[in-house]
Amino acid sequence: MSVRLVVRTFSELCITVGALIILFVVYFLFWTGVKAADAAEGEIDTLQSQWAREPVAPAPDAASSEPAPAPYRDGKPFATMHIPRFGPGWEWPVLENTEVKTLQKGLGHYSGTARPGDSGNFAVAGHRRTYGDPFKDFPKLRPGDAVVVNDGTTWFTYRIAKKPYRTVPTDTAVVDPVPRGSGFEGAGRYLTLTTCEPEWGSSHRLIVWAHLDATRPVSDGRPPELRR
After folding, report:
1. What DSSP letter does each residue of 66-93 carry, written as one string?
2. Which ranges in the chain belong to alpha helices (H)?
3. Which residues are known to be catalytic?
4. Does the pLDDT value for residue 140 go beyond 60?
5. Rg (Cα) of the chain, in Å, rounded?
6. Distance between alpha carbon 106 and the CA centroid of its chain, in Å?
7. What pLDDT does 74 receive?
8. Which parts of the chain span the membrane according to its record (predicted)?
9. Which three-class secondary structure state does DSSP give residue 2?
10. Which helix H or strand E contains 155, and what residues bound it?
11. Is 82 exposed, middle or buried (0-12, 13-18, 19+ CB in 10 A)?
């Protein structure tokens, strides 16, 4: 085999490998985003149709004799989340569990943690990159920022307590009823958001904690934080 043939073969191989790398990057940066946007929109449409057809009953308070609400269904949406810091059009469905397939369609609720507005810790995970990049701007979150959740009957407005906190994936205490490291003391109505760190890796996690600041019946319209 001549040197010229070896060089040409090697060049063609490099071009092929380069093309495959580009296709791989396009898939993760573009195509998974398209799929996630379509899936998330479908989940929100499903929720809104469900709420219009069968209004969700508000959760009973601690002193109520009403039966507890039905458990959330795995992989199914039960609320939407809005974070004004991420832009006026930022809206994602919240689905039950944090399995891989669930997080490809929206945000995932840590099963076993509190429901929106309930006493305890309502904990939610989301992708930082790929599948729509819902938490791409996670490091921009700041104390006082609003996180608004709609469960079909109530708008729950949480306020972030501190800047994002970096920890390791095994630190499960961040989603405890009173999350460790949050600075919260005693029982309360809390929210925890988690995502991957660094931006294109998963060796660590970024966490933000918030406390329930206000509630508003859906029938009263959107809360002020979403009308600015």
Report:
1. SPPPPPPPBT-EEEEEE-GGG-TT-EEE
2. 3-26, 32-53, 100-103
3. 127, 196, 205
4. yes
5. 21
6. 6
7. 97
8. 12-31
9. coil
10. strand 154-160
11. buried
